[in-house]
Fold this sequence. Notes:
Blueprint: H1 30-33, E1 37-42, E2 46-53, H2 55-65, H3 73-80, E3 83-85, E4 97-100, E5 105-109, H4 117-136, E6 146-156, E7 162-171, E8 179-185, E9 205-206, H5 208-215, E10 221-223, H6 224-243, E11 250-256, E12 261-267, H7 275-286, H8 302-316, E13 318-320, E14 337-339, H9 346-361
Amino acid sequence: MYTWMHSVSAEHHAFLNKDDDVDGAKGGSKTMQKRHFHLSFSDESCKFFCCSYFARDFHRLRETVFVPPEQSLEDFSQSLSECQPWDAAGGKSGSAFYKTRDDRFILKEMNSYEANASSFEPFMAGYFDYVHRSVHSEQPSCIAKILGVYKVAVNNFVTGNSYKQDLLVIENLFYGRDIQEKFDLKGSIRNRMVDTSTVADSNLVLWDENLLKTMCDRPLYLSSRENTRMLEAISYDTNFLRSNHMMDYSMLLGITRNRRELVVGIVDYIRAFTWDKKVEQLLKQSGLLGRGDRRQPTCVDPGLYMERFKEAMYKYFITVPDFCFRGVPGGSVEGTRTEELPATSESEKKMEGTAKELGRAK
C-alpha cells in the first residue's frame, strides 16, 4: 500500500467516520451494500480502511477472464501489492493514476460523478452480465475490462492528515507491447488536437485531429476480416453503453514500434449523462463555450455519442483485402487487439498504394 499512497491534507479529504457511507455510494440499496466487503486495521500511527466493491462478482469475473498460467487470481493480488503513481499523459479528467510495478494493471481514481450510486451500481450489475456473456458466447468485445473497484482510506493519528480514494483497477491494454504511438479517440474533431511542437514525450497521448493528420501519410490498414470483427465489437460495446446511459468514453489506440500491430480498447466508459453533462452540452452548443465553434461538442447524449463514435471508428481504419496480409491470427479483437501486417509482394504493394489513395480521399 505504501508504494502508491500519498498523504493528503485533512482539509481536502476527510477520513471516514461512523456516519460516513463506507460504500462510497450514497443512496445505495442495502442489497447492493451486502455485495461489498469491508476491511479495517490499525497500527501505532494510522488507521487503514479498504472496501472491495462487488467482491464476489469481481472474483467470478476474474476467474472467467484470467487464463492460467499467463494470469491467475494470485498474480492479481500480488500485482496490486506493488503500485506507483503514473502520469497518464493526454487526459483531461484530472484524476490520479497508478500502475502496478509489473505493468499489468492501471488504477484510476473515480470522481464523484462516476462513483454516484444511482448510475454506478446499476451499471456494474449489467457490466458483469455483459462481460460473462461476451466471453462464454465468444461475442467480440473491445472494452478494456474493469477487474476490481476499491475504496482505500488512511487516517494518520500523528500528523492529523487523511486520505481517501475510490479506485478502478483496469487491465493495461499495452502490457508486453512496444508501443510507439498512443491515441485517445472520441470521434469528435472539436478541440481534439494535442500541440506536439513544444513537447517531445514518447508517453504523450494524442487525439482525433492528430490521428487524422498522421493518416495523410501513414494510414491505418486492417484486413477486411479484422476490420469487420472490430466494428462488430464496437457495435456491441457501444450499444451496451448507450443502454446504460454512458457517454464520453474513448477508443485507446496503440501502434507498435514496427507498425505490425494495432492495439485497441474502449476506456473511460462509466461516465453517465448526468445533469452536469447536459448543462455542458447546452453551453457548448449555444456558443457560450468554445469561442463560437459550430462543430458538434464532444459532450452529447448517449445515443448521439454512440452514433458519432461508431461512424468515426469506421473512417479511422482503412479496410484492404485479406490477401494483402499474411499470417494474420484470427479472433484478435476479442482480446482487444487487431493485427496489422504489411504487404510484401509486388501486387500487394500496388494494392497498398491504392489503399493509401483511398485513405487520402476519405
